[in-house]
Design goal:
single chain; 680 residues; alpha/beta; Rossmann fold; 2 domains; 6-stranded mixed β-sheet; 3-stranded antiparallel β-sheet; 9 strands
Length: 680
């Protein structure tokens, strides 16, 4: 095994055969942390964004936190109920993209796909950035280099996901359940201290006053409506990640749709409970936040003061577990980890969606293939690089990134639910069974209500966030839409161009004119000449380029000495180059007959080390590449194995033997190196 192979196996583990795909399917207990960690973790930053926005209205704004939380919870309930219909109707894993494409057309499907791809990238960037912000409560040294630390976390998550869905899911399950226990336990204990023990539980910021932005003073009329809408749109980040389960249905164990729907219901129940509990407890304990950009600030006895920024969960854990430091550190640690792992939802959703789009010809086909661990590794790499770029550009600033967030997911929510209403309407036209019709009518009602709710939220999000950065997300979606249409047109054009016509399969070349490129008179050249003779072409020529007089005389003398019974043609090269004169010669012997073929034989060294490749075959590589662009010319590379090539051969043999020993590998050993390989 080479060093590269060793490092790759160490990073992502042993290869898995295609027949082992069933081993990677997920039970519900693992699927919940894999696909729901994003939605569950949003309770760690969605309350922050609500309170940060309300702080712009000063003390009056915080009174509306619980009403906004109720509306967000209702919308989440509608979305969860709607997607339960989707996973039953479309279990193939296409999710919103498939629903929109089947029911509304290809363009609608591409709009949804563009929105989801952008949202997945933002999910990784926002989740990891929020994790870094929470981690600063325990690790102050992170301050100032948030972007670099966030980038390191993204690379770590990428490496974990390259090992495969099941392995990463098993690894992430414990922290996800730990976060659920930490938050629910904190909320229950906080309520118990208030209502059960009768304590007056107050947040660290309870005795501080908040002065808002002059733009929202007085907090009435349109100013109030605009700010509440903006706070609601920021809090709607709690809904992100719900759609990932509908995209990941193929990853569930049988019965796939039932297990996916059950996991979705559990996700909704837990996420709504955690989100509502945090907002309710923050309202009861008079917890406050201020906008870090300085549009709102704390005062005490009328005097502005500086207070270190601490998240909602950070303040709440410090307050609830004031006499139990272990509880505080457990909550903060669990929150930090879940925010990092929330990106795992996107690492599962983005590659699957990318694979489906690649299958349909809208993205490069390399995204459709599975890697060594049966994960869509190319999609994982693309997602990681895109998210890495975002956190570095924004230095992991959650408040800046959150403005780009949510738009994409509500675009997909709305279009998908509209597609589902059309789906049920279409099936109702042909369905006669009263029981099935009643089920379809009920499902259509659910999807119609869901569509209405998400459409309203989408309008609010666009209206309230557009000027604050959401236009960048909309622009990214538009660019992706145009790019995917262009890729599709390219693939279609290529497909039409290479389609076999009625006479193509029977058309044989009328003449084959063979040319052997001679640079030295040695064993590789002799092998190329002999192989060219064995193919019995219509004509055969050996050609060398006279780029150096002394070298050319030596080549001609050696050629005559060997007695190869084939004339050697010398091409003049006044400017001492090989490629140009040889290409011109080949172009010159091409006839106007489209059925004539020129076959060029090029001797090539086979070496065993990468660095040797830099010392050999450079001219032949350039010539071969240029010839590939000439109509009616075929290029045949005739390999000659140098002594060092045995090392590469031995490595290949060991890898092949290891693959054969691996159960279910299904690999076939390729033959020896001595046969020439033709490249057309």
């Amino acid at each position: 095994m080479s060093v590269t192979d060793f490092l790759k196996r160490l990073l992502i583990g042993r290869k898995l055969a295609s027949t082992q795909l069933g081993e990677t399917l997920l039970p519900k207990r693992i699927a919940l942390p894999v696909f729901a960690s994003d939605a569950l973790s949003s309770v760690a930053y969605a309350p922050d964004e609500i309170l940060l926005t309300l702080s712009l209205a000063g003390m009056a704004g915080f009174a509306f936190s619980w009403q906004i939380a109720i509306v967000v919870a209702v919308v989440m309930l509608l979305v969860v109920m709607s997607y339960r219909q989707t996973v039953h109707a479309y279990p193939s894993g296409g999710g919103d993209y498939e629903v929109a494409t089947v029911n509304l057309g290809a363009n609608a499907g591409l709009v949804v796909a563009s929105a989801l791809l952008v949202d997945y990238v933002l999910t990784v960037a926002v989740s990891v950035s929020s994790g870094i912000q929470n981690a600063k409560a325990m690790l102050p040294f992170l301050a100032g280099n948030e972007g670099m630390w966030a980038g390191a976390v993204i690379l770590l998550l990428m490496a974990m996901n390259l090992r495969g869905v099941k392995e990463s899911g098993s690894f992430f399950a414990i922290p996800t359940y730990g976060f659920m226990i930490a938050v629910i336990g904190m909320v229950i204990w906080g309520f118990f201290r208030i209502f059960g023990l009768g304590e007056q539980l107050l947040a660290p910021t309870a005795d501080l006053e908040v002065v808002g932005s002059p733009a929202y003073d007085p907090f009435v009329g349109m100013a109030m409506i605009a700010l509440l809408a903006r706070a609601f749109s920021s809090g709607s980040a709690a809904l992100t990640g719900v759609e990932a389960i509908s995209n990941g249905v193929p990853s569930f164990r049988e019965p796939k749709s039932k297990n996916a729907a059950t996991t979705l219901a559990l996700l909704g129940l837990v996420a709504i409970s955690m989100f509502g509990g945090i907002i309710a407890l923050s309202h009861l304990t008079q917890l406050k936040l201020i906008d870090p950009d300085g549009q709102s600030h704390f005062t005490q006895n009328g005097v502005p003061i500086e207070v270190p920024h601490e998240t909602v969960i950070g303040q709440m854990a410090r307050m609830v577990f004031s006499d139990f430091p272990v509880g505080f550190y457990f909550v903060i640690t669990a929150t930090m980890v879940i925010l990092f792992l929330a990106a795992n939802t996107a690492f599962n959703g983005f590659p699957v969606l990318g694979s489906i789009l690649a299958r349909d010809g809208f993205l490069p086909r390399m995204l459709h293939t599975r890697g060594d661990r049966l994960a869509y590794s190319n999609g994982i790499l693309v997602l990681a690089l895109a998210a890495l770029g975002l956190v570095l550009v924004f230095n992991a600033n959650v408040t800046a990134l959150i403005q780009l967030y949510v738009v994409g997911v509500f675009v997909s929510f709305t279009i998908s639910q509209f597609g589902m209403t059309k789906h049920w309407t279409r099936h109702l036209k042909s369905e006669k069974d009263p029981k099935l019709r009643a089920h379809m009518i009920r499902s259509r009602v659910i999807n119609t209500i869901g569509m209405t709710g998400t459409a309203v939220v989408l309008v609010i999000v666009l209206a309230s966030k557009f000027i604050y950065g959401a236009y960048w997300a909309v622009l990214a979606m538009a660019v992706l839409f145009v790019l995917m249409r262009s890729i599709r047109r390219h693939y279609q054009k290529v497909s039409d161009e290479v389609a076999i016509g009625p006479s193509d399969a029977r058309m044989l070349p009328s003449r084959v004119r063979a040319v052997v490129l001679v640079q030295e008179v040695n064993k590789p050249t002799v092998r190329a000449v002999n192989f060219a003779r064995a193919t019995r072409p219509s004509s055969l020529e050996a050609v060398t380029v006279a780029f150096d007089d002394a070298h050319t005389k030596e080549v001609v003398a050696s050629w005559d000495e060997q007695g190869l019974e084939l004339p050697l043609k010398v091409i003049s090269s006044p400017y001492r180059e090989i490629t140009g004169p040889f290409l011109n010669y080949v172009r010159g012997i091409r006839s106007d007959n489209p059925r004539d073929v020129v076959c060029v034989y090029i001797p090539e060294f086979v070496v065993g080390h990468w660095w040797e490749q830099l010392l050999h075959n450079q001219t032949t590589l350039i010539v071969r590449t240029r010839l590939n662009f000439m109509q009616g010319v075929m290029v045949t590379s005739v390999p000659f194995q140098l002594a060092s090539s045995k090392y590469a051969f031995d490595r290949a043999e060991r890898n092949s033997a290891a693959a054969w020993r691996r159960p279910g590998s299904g690999q076939v050993r390729v033959g020896g190196y001595d046969e020439p390989r033709a490249k057309e």
